[in-house]
């Protein structure tokens, strides 16, 4: 975290405030550049890359893009930098991990004008020349641009979307096309040379012609090798870049889908359908590009074929055309079989995912035979579908084979016949050889085009599958727009009603209560009474409720969703820890947090003591599925992760329910420290852990049955009393306050 004393530095960083860590200066620079375009960024929304101490350009660009802007990283030389004359603030990355804002260029004087990202708006920029800048500048810049068209972020995933993705790589496409065209032209020469060898060298025993032809062959082969290498290399880069583009876009879209969607859909199914997009990518850069490039060969070779022999050229075209017709006729049937195969494969991968995800339950309940049966069934469907599709393909290939053989062999015979019989055709042995060498090249693009249309069926179904997930309404708008008020934590529900999509009964009906800032609210009630639903509404997971839900007087739906979720610390019953160190898990990619913050959060969560006992302390590695730590330790780490950003609102939904009594006691004891200065909403089945809450809200069938302190509820709420007695006096004895025992109360509650 060391930061050079920039006040002593005469360059552009001179103004940078020594109180800020370099990475914060970098974030602030991007934040100011974005503000110039009316994009409001929040440093807390920035998600750094694991293992990167300073914000990287891709992570910064993603931050801007997630908030509705667009950003592009570039590596520039000084002379290129001074050409960026009329662009708004440009972020220059510095070697120490900080950054500067370039607000102007004076090419005549050879200086750029820099400002310190933290300086006030009226601070004058500093002029920095090439020499001074080069001492600190990495050469990287980030260009931030204004409001990315939100429509393009929400654009449907279909052929137009894919075309836009592919055309995004225009330059590489152009290079591949040029290389292919030259290769196509070069392809004419070998047959020409063969023609010359046979007609001139062999027939006339001309050694000198052979020598010159050998030289020519050598030179051309060299160029062909070079060009083919270049084309392969460019195609490789093109494919990889396209893969990256598509991956990023698809993943962004997937993350923007609301949680409700993932809860409804089977995870394996979602993965299978989204992965279908790669079939499409494969098609675009494989078959489609290949056939497109082959077409150049066709354009170049065709006239040459007609020049060699019109009759043979016509016969070749007719045969290739017939192949195309056969394929087109078979296409609908093949298409249907292909879709069936795609669907069967997706269902099988869904079953595989489900088995791996639920392996613990499968093993514990000895469900292996059942899962095996499901797998066998799905595999059988895949096998049948692939066999059917394969057989159909085989039939088509066999049907076109005679035509294919005709092009490759029959043409030689007809050519030979023409050469022997016709005095006018003028076809010589060399020309016939050349023709047969080139004839195959004409057939393959024509056949390829027909197959292409055939493949389109498969691609269309794959794209439709991916689209059925990715084209659902996202929460992007809510995530990137809305207010970001300072949060104190006062909650108010008034007449809130909510029904889950597809459910017949409402989960919440006319819920009205309020929670003053900085107090603790306990939520109790029988299973299914709506407790978790209340916490979901608070986190903005479900937003289709009626009535009003206000946070500090502001309607929750007006608050930026990302900001709201970041401002809320949430601990659930089963918290997922990522593979990585304890420190990484607690920081969870939030910028600007130090080890001291991690230690403070761990202390608050009661986790410090057990972490320190671990061999590597905060650098202890957590395995996948947190198998190397206990349930209680995992919960405490989850609490530390939730409190590290000091949220003013915390939600604990059955956070201690799965813990043993000792771990629960430790966590509960810490809750009191934790609660200081924050609003806490605690859902718990164990009423004893809620006694200290300022208010306890008793839910019953989606209604608020009562709300009050523990003592008030014990005195007046039958449901609460029943639950309390069941947990604390299960023998049905009087609770010692002269209140009735459980048997009596149950009658009451009914
Ligand atoms: N994703 C969902 N889709 C449809 N209905 C749901 C969904 N989640 C919950 N419900 C229904 O909404 C009602 C309230 O559920 P909720 O999870 O809020 O209850 P709860 O009081 O938290 O229960 P528990 O104590 O068992 O966690 C229940 O009837 C439940 O069946």
TrEMBL record:
Record bears the keyword ATP-binding: yes
UniProt domain ABC transporter: residue ranges: 491-726
Region named Disordered: 731-750
PROSITE patterns: ABC_TM1F (PS50929), ABC_TRANSPORTER_1 (PS00211), ABC_TRANSPORTER_2 (PS50893), PEPTIDASE_C39 (PS50990)
Domain Peptidase C39: 15-144
Localization per record: Cell membrane
One of the record's GO molecular function terms: ABC-type transporter activity
PANTHER family: ATP-BINDING CASSETTE SUB-FAMILY B, BLL6336 PROTEIN
Name listed for the protein in its UniProt record: ABC transporter ATP-binding protein
Organism: Komagataeibacter swingsii
